[in-house]
Each structure stands twice: as C-alpha cells, then as structure tokens.
Amino acid sequence: MTDENSDLLDVIIIGTGFAGVYGLHRIREAGFRVIAVEAGDDVGGCWYWNRYPGLRCDVDSLEYSYAFSEELQNEWRWSERYAPQSEIQSYIAFAADKLDLRKDIQFNTRISAATYNNDAGNWSLETEAGETLRARYVVMATGCLSVPNKPDIPGLDDFGGQLVHSVQWPKEKLDLSGKNVAVIGTGSTGVQMIPLLAKEAKHLTVVQRTPAFCVPARNQQWSDERIEFWRQNFRELRETARNSRAGVLHEYGLLPAAAIRPEDQIADLERRWIKGGPNVLYGFNDLLMNHDTNELVSDFLRGKIADAVDDPEIAKKLMPYEYPVGTKRVCVDTGYYETYNRDNVSLVDLRSEKLQQIEKDGIRTEEGFYPVDVLIMATGYDAMTGALLAIDIRTSEGKSLRTEWGKGPQTYLGLGIAGFPNMFVVTGPGSPSVFSNMVLSVEHDMDWIANCLDHLRGKDFPSFEADPNAQEAWMDHVDEVARGTLLNRAASWYRGANIEGKPQKFMPYVGGVNTYQKKCRDIADNGYEGFLIGGVSEATSAEQGAG
Ligand code: NAP
Hints:
By secondary structure, this protein is of the alpha/beta class. It has 15 helices and 20 strands. Strands 1, 2, 3, 4, 5, 6, 17 and 18 form an eight-stranded mixed beta sheet that branches.
C-alpha cells in the first residue's frame, strides 16, 4: 500500500538568505521534516544576487550577523566595520556549511505558484521546472528587497549597448575601462557604486531623479581589540540591540532637538558626522516627528554637500529639498559627493533637465546627448511585496493573494495573512523589517514561527491562520503609527511609490523593534491571540473557559 502523503513535508521554506538559512536550522532542530528551496545556486539571498562594485551593508558587521550562536560569532572574524558583499555572502555560506544545511536545500528551484488545499490543510508548491512540492506549512523567506524594479523608460528597448540591472550584476567582471557608462538611480545602490564606476569608466553620466541624503561611512578595519570586546560581551550587546528602536546599537538621543541648546545641537551633529554611519540621524528623538528638527538635520546635511562639491551649481542639484530626511532611506557613502569634482563625471538632474529618451547609443535630454556604452539601472526594487506577489499564491477555496492585496498588503504582525492558513511570512509588511537590523528581525521571526509550530505540534486541527479582525486592527495600528510621523511625506519605496501602479501604503511597522517583539511575545504567551487554530481562537476559548 502506498502512503499518499509520503512526500508531504512538515515545512517548506522559500528562500535561503539570512532568514532561510537560520529558519532551516531552527525548524529542523525543533524536530520538523523541513526543506528550503532556493532560486539561486547558492545561499545568500540579496547578498548572492547583488554583487555590484562598492556593495556593502550599512549596518556594522558585528551587528549584521547571527546572534543565536556563540560558536558562529567566535569562529567568524569580520574584517571591516561595513562588510563588503563578498564577505557577507561567504559568512552566510559559512553558516550554512557549519550547520550542515545544504543537504536540505533544493537549489536552482524557483517557486511560481503556491496553492493551499483548504480540505487537506496543506500547501502544494509548483516550481518553474514543473515539479510539485508539498508541505503542511510554508514559510516565505523571500526577502523584502529581491525583485528588481525595471521602470519603463522611453526608448530603453532601443538601447544597443550593454544594459545591466544592479540586482542582476554579471558574475564575471564587467570591464568598464575606456567606456562611456551611465547610471540611472541615486539611492543606496547608485550612491555606493558611482564613486567606483567613475574611477574605472572613461566617462560616467549619473541620471538623478531625486537626490539622496547621504552620510559618510568612514569604513575601517576592525581591530583585534574590538573583535575581542564583542566576543566577550556578545550576549549583552545583542540583548541591548534587541531592546532598542531599530535593533541596532546606535547612540539614541533621548531628547527632542528643541530641548537642546542650538550650539550643542550642532556640536552633537558634528561629532556624529565624524564618527560616520547613520548615527547622525539618531541624535534627536523627534527627527521623524517634528518638522523643525527634521529641517535642522536636513540643513546640516545639505551644508555638507556644499562643503564637498566644488561647483556650487552641481552641489545645489545634489541637495534634496522635496522630502524630510529619513523618510527615504539615508545612504551611507564613501566619496560619493567628491566624485562630482572629477572631470569625467556628468550629473543629469531630471528635475531641471528633462529626459527625452534612451537611444541606441546614449541618453537624450532636453539639454543634449550623453553617449553611453554601458547603461546601469540602479533603480531599486519592488520592495516588501514584490517577491510574495511574484508567486501566484491561492487557496483551493478561490482566494488569491494578488487580489486580496490589490489595495496594498494586509497582514497580522507581518507574520500571518488572514485567509491563507499555514503560511508564515518573515519580515513581512506590517513588521519592522526594513526599518530594523534585518538579521536581528529574521532571527526573531524564525524563532517565533518555530515556537508556534512547536505549539501546534500534535494538535488535531486543519489550519492556523490570522483572524481577519485581528489583522484589520493591527494594520490600523501600523497606519496610525506611520501617520504620526513624517514618513508619508516622501514618495518612497517604503510606500510602494517607486513602482508604477502599486498601491501606496506605508508598509513597515515603525513602532520600534522593542515594542514589536514584546507584542509578538505577548500574543504567543496568550495562546496566539488573534490567530485561529482550526478556525477557533485559543485565546478566546481560554478566556471563556476561565469565565
Ligand atoms: P532605491 O532606493 O529605490 O533607489 C532607486 C533610484 O532609482 C532612486 O534614485 C530612484 O529615484 C531612481 N529611479 C527609479 N525609477 C526611475 C526612473 N524611472 N527614472 C529615473 N530614476 C528612477 O533603490 P536602491 O538604491 O537599490 O536601494 C533600495 C534599498 O536597498 C535601500 O534603500 C536599502 O534599504 C537597500 N540597500 C542597502 C544597501 C546597503 O546596505 N548599503 C545597499 C543597497 C541597497 P526616485 O528616488 O525619484 O524614486
């Protein structure tokens, strides 16, 4: 007799970036039959796909790494404050090897569709190659920044040179020497690659639609003393980060700017500027709440642009005025503004010089023609929802996630979606995710999911899903917290504003990592309040029982 469920796994994790790698280990250790599937041929997620010149993480490497294992922490030595892509990729691969995960990862496997069978209570996943994989639970570790944004720019299809998207950078070296290169986009990606491209290309043309606010990285090698300090104090430092607003050990100022004397405000900004990294944004606790505080910091940063750029006209073009600082992700740069002092760099500011079209061998604007051999799109991502909606997620009862999210994403805690049982999302919309140290957040989410699976183990029930009422209340709260800030004042990817036709809604939860993690803990402790287990709330039945 054959068992029709012999191929049914307990859990399938989609994606093996930081989240999938940890999740596979964590869920396997909890005793579940689990595999991970991965579209690439190695682990790493965004650190595998992105490999453009200059790519680094803008969170200190000692913090942008796993916290769950003292062994990993002690055996790996980060070389620099802001680790380069290759080192982060090697670290994730090191973790996968150390934890012996590769035997449970199916590489080169992209999931195109996922269907929940409401009667059987399990998921069927279709791969692009036509294979079907089945599991009771599915965990979407598909990443917040993984689907490239490829805007429809007039004439792009006619371009005859080499076209490269930053997210799909070729594995082999891209030789730019002697070439006319253009970059479209001046977000974190553009800002990181532009100084290096300028050094290699014959001429670099930067096409800027909106200027970024940038702070200097001041990257440096880690000293042995620093590494040793972290190893000795690892647990306490991680715990402190976990209890902070962003999950990162910034020096968080405790006061609003108005409570500080003007001369001390500037002195503190200067001190933070010299230290480097995003710390300059954390001096006042009301940067994202108070217009005047925001203007103070914005002015300070615009002044730094004027200092760095020789030509005042170019400096002016590089200054952002159209959104409050911090409402678009601030870029961490190395020599970005100074690059515009080079003779071989031109800035096309689309605010004052309208783009007409891309042509076979260059870019035509109202002001002239810029010859281009290699055109680089640093135009970002379909963030937070792109990778989830790239998979056709449905239920046998006829629900489709693409339809359900037609007006924007709806989740409960970013972890569950009403109507889509037995599916967990990691760092989903409605969780701090991209507003936090992602490694810390993926570990939290995977721990929460593994504990939840453990709670459900052995229970006789068909489904675990978010209660639609709890989901609505949570999304209202996510909106309310964002509305109390300046964050909705920018056309940012946090709001989906970078993608034509995407519903605009502020997606991350900005109430703080500390607040969010406590909320998740309380919900779990209260019988997974707001989730339905077999269609019933354990939290409610516990209350009724007590009554
Ligand atoms: P991004 O921040 O979305 O920047 C994309 C850039 O392309 C923007 O300047 C955008 O202009 C421009 N653009 C988009 N469509 C355009 C069009 N049709 N015509 C002209 N310009 C257009 O993307 P990203 O730079 O890849 O960064 C995304 C996120 O990834 C970052 O915010 C960060 O969270 C993460 N990241 C992190 C690091 C790091 O750790 N250091 C590095 C890279 C990326 P508008 O601003 O006008 O839309």
